[in-house]
Design brief:
70% of the residues lie in helices and 2% in strands. With 251 residues, the chain is mainly alpha-helical. A two-stranded antiparallel ribbon has the order 1-2. Helix 1 packs across helix 5, helix 3 packs across helix 4 and helix 3 packs across helix 5.
């Protein structure tokens, strides 16, 4: 067992199982509560990332002006952009670093959910490797009751509700942080990503355990709430709050 499994993955698996014990033996509730706890603990980093992203969006018009002016001179462009970031107190690491710090936690939670929903003999044998023998509460809980609402958490959602929720919540989250772009090529790329990523995750949900889809939906909803309180509705303003034309037909 490597360091990753000992320090991060194994503790998370055992805690998830114990949490489900005290939540009516429901791994579904455990996934929801644990996801909320993890996102709450990481909120300072998430807020830092959202604030940095908002600042980056505010700088987009000035960056586009620099691209028009120095687009052919890469060295001058980089110098002017660095000066702009310094003037505004903005750094590229402000957006990237918080995400990099959070990624191991998200990956560990993803791997933990996959493992605790083990049902087959080989999967259960693999799960037993991660259980603490000193925690007597853990072994009697395995295998976990995988029923939650209409879902069998160890199998894909046969009613296709979770794929729709995953894709829908991810689209809303991405739309909120998608900046307005006057560059046609960049705007087209942004629109493509806005459509492709939700569709990709929705498609993956068709074959992945619905317990993982539950985590994605809860995490997306939390992200939407956080983004609203930090940056507002963002790109959704253009859809929900368009100025209505007056009686004369003028906008």
């Amino acid at each position: 067992m490597d360091i990753w499994e000992i320090i991060i993955l194994r503790p998370m698996i055992n805690v998830l199982i114990v949490v489900s014990k005290y939540l009516f033996s429901s791994p579904g509730l455990a996934i929801i509560v644990f996801t909320v706890i993890i996102r709450a603990v990481m909120y300072p980093l998430t807020k830092q990332q959202l604030v940095a992203s908002k600042k980056m969006q505010a700088l987009q018009p000035k960056i586009q002006e620099l691209q028009k002016k120095y687009g052919k001179d890469k060295q001058r462009m980089a110098k002017e952009q660095a000066a702009l970031f310094k003037e505004s107190g903005m750094t590229n690491l402000g957006c990237i670093l918080p995400m990099l710090v959070q990624m191991p936690i998200w990956i560990a939670l993803y791997q933990s959910i996959i493992r605790i929903l083990a049902t087959g003999p080989e999967e259960l044998l693999n799960l037993s490797r991660y259980l603490y023998s000193s925690w007597h509460i853990v072994f009697p809980m395995v295998p976990l009751n995988s029923q939650f609402l209409w879902l069998n958490l160890g199998s894909p959602d046969r009613f296709l509700i979770m794929p729709i929720l995953v894709a829908g919540t991810m689209w809303i989250q991405q739309k909120m942080v998608t900046p307005k772009n006057t560059n046609p090529q960049q705007a087209a790329q942004g629109q493509m990503m806005l459509v492709m990523m939700p569709l990709l995750f929705g498609f993956l949900t068709l074959s992945y355990p619905s317990g993982l889809a539950l985590y994605w939906v809860v995490s997306n909803i939390i992200s939407i709430i956080m983004q609203y309180f930090v940056t507002g509705w963002g790109g959704l303003d253009t859809l929900w709050f368009k100025k209505k034309p007056d009686d004369t037909g003028k906008s």
